[in-house]
Amino acid sequence: MGALESVVMDPPEVDLPAHALEQPRIRDDGTPETTWQTWQGLDAIESLPIEKWMHPAMRLVVVAPHPDDEILACGGLMAMHAARGGSTLVVAVTDGEASHAGVSSWRATKLAEVRRTERLQGLSRLGCAGTEVHRLGLPDGNVAGHATALEEQLRRVVRWGDIVVTTWRRDGHPDHEACGDAAAGACGAAHCCLLQAPVWMWHWSRPGDPQVPWHRLVGLGLTSREVAGKQRALAAHASQLEPRGSAVGPVLGPAMLERLTRRSEYFFV
């Protein structure tokens, strides 16, 4: 794996648990993509081609807190790996049934069913039809309350030689952070490579934010084909893109959709 391996093998920094930091809040419209694209620090992040990340024979394991997180976190990586004949396992931690909490027109059980269907449609549009999905069914919004069970499940799934991707353990969403912590424990036990993708970090943080270890980010360059594939895949998640009610906007707003136009995905390695 060349350059990536040299990054992984560097002495790691000590990660503080999320509760030891000022907890960012996901609110308002977030930092616009134009702000990120004009920040020179983004250009300074090293970007590596797929060949530096993984061999086609390696298994990609994506630990997704909610349906659609696999696309937001690493849809380009998944598409590239599939195009090269690689296998991917998606660990579906929750069914995303709490995204419309408080909206009377949506029952949690119905929404969970809809979101499971959207996930399969999204994977197909990404070029990953037939990808194995291992569903855990943990409660959306309370993954942290089942952290021990989640790590035990991941320890059964993850094996040496896998490349594991999940959300960053400081991402600003409790489910994302719990998945990051659990995956770190499982990957440590299996001695495999863990990539943590910032998803909501781009929303609450600002360029140069001291809460973010920017020097630990590594980029994966995407072609226009992978970018378009991610956009088509996310469009399958209509429940997250449409207003949730008469006075409640969509889960994924314009800023999140603009970030999907990026020609890179980023991971804390």
Number of helices: 12
| Cα distance spanning the termini | 13 Å
* Proportion in helices: 25-40%
Quote the CATH topology: Rossmann fold
The percent range for strand residues is 15-25%
CATH homology-level superfamily: LmbE-like
What is the architecture at the second tier of CATH?
A: 3-Layer(aba) Sandwich
CATH top level class name: Alpha Beta
Radius of gyration: 17 Å
Structural class: alpha/beta
Low-confidence stretches: 5-24
Instruction: Tell me the number of structural domains.
Output: 1
**Biggest sheet descriptor:** 5 strands, parallel
Mean pLDDT: 90
**Which assembly state applies to the chains in this document?**
single chain
- Series of secondary-structure elements, N-terminal to C-terminal: HHHEHEHEHEHEHEHEHHHE
Net shape: globular
Strands ordered across the widest β-sheet: 4-3-2-5-6
